[in-house]
Write a structure and sequence with these properties.
It is a single chain. Helix content is about 25%, strand content about 25%. By secondary structure, it is an alpha/beta fold. About 30% of the residues are buried.
Length: about 130
């Protein structure tokens, strides 16, 4: 099972900003048969105010801690910032070329075996989902 955190502001589309700048992370349980919504987590790291700019390691640790606590092992976004170097040590990073979350979830479900294998590795590669 893959628990993925999707970077979104509205629950329908991915954001066009860095993963860490999302208002919410919608969590989905991905299996070979389904992609089921689990819950929404609000991103409070923007409220903390002391961000040093893009690639702030404190922000990366804060988001990673929240997602790890929820059992997340994959993150999905259209855009990542410099912190992708840090978060890919803990999470399988997936880059979607789609705007719509639903389309990407279908692809993730169909790639379940590959994603599971990659998520278990210490050195995870970045997965790119292509448009149909």
């Amino acid at each position: 099972m893959i628990i993925s955190a999707v970077a979104t502001d509205d629950g329908v589309s991915f954001i066009d900003r860095h993963f860490g700048d999302a208002r919410f992370y919608d969590l989905y349980e991905i299996t070979g048969d389904s992609a089921s919504f689990m819950k929404r987590i609000e991103n409070h790291t923007e409220d903390e105010g002391d961000e040093e700019g893009h690639g702030d390691p404190v922000k990366a640790r804060s988001i990673a801690a929240i997602l790890t606590e929820e059992g997340v092992n994959a993150v999905v976004s259209r855009v990542y910032g410099p912190n992708i170097r840090r978060i890919r040590k803990k999470f399988l990073c997936i880059v979607s070329r789609e705007g719509a979350i639903e389309e990407s979830l279908i692809r993730l479900k169909n790639m379940f075996s590959e994603l599971s294998e990659e998520a278990s590795k210490t050195e995870k590669k970045i997965i790119y989902l292509q448009n149909r």
